[in-house]
């Protein structure tokens, strides 16, 4: 039965996860990428070309301007594009009369100099990005001109090749040579497009200089070669400096100074027929992060310069102060004379286009052909997309837009002067921006069928877990989940999945995935319903034994945690709400304990001396300490943009920035101190339990491993954030790699030989043992007498061997595993976040202690003793999710700790995206992963507690009057709970069916709570799908909760698998001892 429960948990996890995945496919659908491409006839000034520009051609064009969409005017200049990653708009502003500029201020002086020297030849504009502001999404927008989709942020670790029409492909098709230098994301998105490419990995954010140095090495040679028409260089140092140090560090001043020198050298080397574009792909927050939609993140910089040719002025109708990033695509296509990509939604900005006369065309005719080509391209794409996705767009809105465009097609034929052109362009731009606004509002197309199925198949498993598992006794699961029936369940699900894959179109499902998830979930729900009906009698009987209004305070606490998702203000303040709810659960436990103590320990007159010696007082003080820890965690919370009173940020940084309070050396020292205290106390606990006796592999690892790991973790915390520049990165990475290796070694050891016990070798027959104050002669006489009478052999055969660590045989291994897991997480976290993790571990230890005493005092049998109370269950669940906020995380996309992806990984040590993703997941969801892997401690801590402190049994007995001082602890335990608890966790092995069933039930109950939580998040998104804050607050919160679900369920399975492995090893040990005893 051991592995039967495991397969049932896997089945339930897949069922819940399938419902969540199905909902996300309906709620976070990306727009459909179009594979059509734009083409045009390229007019030329060369008489030898096919489409030579003459007066006759111009006259023919303006007879019917609507037929000119397939024409491209000649190329104006070559283009150099310098992309400075994370170049925020404020980095390029020059502030006069500033005596002490901030590190990012007044460093790009070349921009101000060119603007002053040649105001008609230079432009400085705010470059507005669309969220999400991740590099890959911004590069897609900068090259396709299309709006990004919300869920595309998940692919930032793996940049797939772009299959949409884009300006890079159009340049290549037009036979314009293209050279690239810098971030390898470009070559991932556009492989085999460049004449020459100097691409370098972009994900080592601790490396500020390698990529930039390589670009600066090759850039002068490329500028001098002149065999290209477009040159792109993507610098990474500013972005990496922001991630590592933030924008207020002196390193930012150095990197911006380097960029200033690069721009100067390019300006000097470029010829008169070249346009220079310097741009950032996104901005950065005060902490140097990006990814969200705040002004700090979306406001990048764009600078344009042309040596010989002046740019068009403000009389063209284009915005001179701000440029939408998608507007760069048609603008760049216009400069190069290539077709505007098919899916572009941006407008040409003539403030960035050199005013070069086109033969046979006057100024307004040139502008008119450009804007009308742009308008027809947008119209063709938008209405074709709307025609293929009719349910997405409002019919009345589409009719209005179509009518307006038809009127514009008639109006464009009547423009014969610049005044009429200006009026026309103003109205045309308003119309095209209406199209863009329409796409922004309804681009993410909700799929109600998939959302409904996702909600249904997420709720029904939770409902049946409540009925079938929660209302059954642990001993009953052997009858409910038989091995053969579980095997048939998997076969039925496999058949249902094949059926869904084969016939999904017959049921109007759009994807094979929808069909597979729907039919496997439907089959599983039917099977769960069958099991529920078959055992309905026992379910009703157990349900009737539960008090109707029992655990009402705890239920209210759980309800409060689920209600968070339905209010944007609750989501914003979720960290504080969880802290109140967690403190509330500890208070409920303390209240129950105090109420019992008043009856047990203070039956007579309450005495102060008796109160001071009581166990209850110590545990109440421990509860107060836990609440103080929770309150201290407030100082570790990170802020959201919506929290105007956030104390982490001050608004003294001037326009464009909020200044972040710098981390102090005190926080680093406190982090190291907490790490040392945690590992030391854990080691002392294991040694007092006898689990560090002997020389087995796991004992040696638990004895020395945490010490080595804590030294490495402390060194990594201090050196990784040190301002010392001479420390090699590989040395810092080595410390993290040692901790990674220890965790992997721990996993291997637990898989092979998990026990931390030591069987004391039996004494030889001739051994004589005496105390120090006894005489040896009487003992020798007694020994000779036993040998003469033959009693010595019988004594040796009946002797029970001494086994160190057997009383905590289960929990000790779980705790040792947790130490290595926690140290890996500590290395991945920021120093202040690692303090939060240790604090949560301390709160968890206090919660286990209080609950262990309470469970013993309320238990009436082994079954009730091994099952934690509902309050402890909810408290542990809340603690797991509270740890997310205590470790300085927030449910916003811009605050994802991408830095964790590179801890311990230098450029020469693996570039796997899978490893990067796993490290970020470990960092972000360290709380749920850690506490759900350790969930079995809720079942074992009562037994280990009383094995270590047997006097607790005497102090907790309920019938002190019936027992005298000679009553043994075993008799007291039997009297209290019906079995001998003095043997500690060895008792769990003796009642293995109930023990394993109780842990299966506990894991399933956590499944139920997590499933209920993600269901509420999904329901809130469904209710608020047209809410103003749906994409800013509700959708990110759902994404975080969905990922937490995908992480928590496997963590619980790992926790149960760890328990099974320990149990099998204990079984082997007991059988070996019995076999040795028999022989």
TrEMBL record:
Main location: endoplasmic reticulum
UniProt entry keywords in alphabetical sequence: Endoplasmic reticulum, Glycoprotein, GPI-anchor biosynthesis, Membrane, Transferase, Transmembrane, Transmembrane helix
InterPro entries associated with the record: Alkaline_phosphatase_core_sf, Phosphodiest/P_Trfase, PIG-O_N, PIGG/GPI7_C, PIGO/GPI13
Residue ranges annotated for the GPI ethanolamine phosphate transferase 2 C-terminal domain, each copy included: 873-1045
GO terms under biological process: GPI anchor biosynthetic process
Name of the protein this chain belongs to: GPI ethanolamine phosphate transferase 3, catalytic subunit
A GO cellular-component term linked to this record: endoplasmic reticulum membrane
Lineage of origin: Eukaryota, Metazoa, Ecdysozoa, Arthropoda, Hexapoda
Gene assigned in the entry: PIG-O
Topology of the protein relative to the lipid bilayer: Multi-pass membrane protein
Pfam families given in the database record: Phosphodiest (PF01663), PIGO_PIGG (PF19316)
GO molecular function: mannose-ethanolamine phosphotransferase activity
Membrane spanning stretches: 451-470, 486-504, 516-533, 554-571, 615-634, 667-686, 734-756, 802-828, 835-854, 874-893, 914-938, 1002-1026, 1038-1059
SUPFAM superfamilies: Alkaline phosphatase-like
Annotated compartments: Endoplasmic reticulum membrane
Pathway linked to the protein: Glycolipid biosynthesis; glycosylphosphatidylinositol-anchor biosynthesis
Entry similarity comment: Belongs to the PIGG/PIGN/PIGO family. PIGO subfamily.
Superkingdom of origin: Eukaryota
Gene3D superfamilies: Alkaline Phosphatase, subunit A
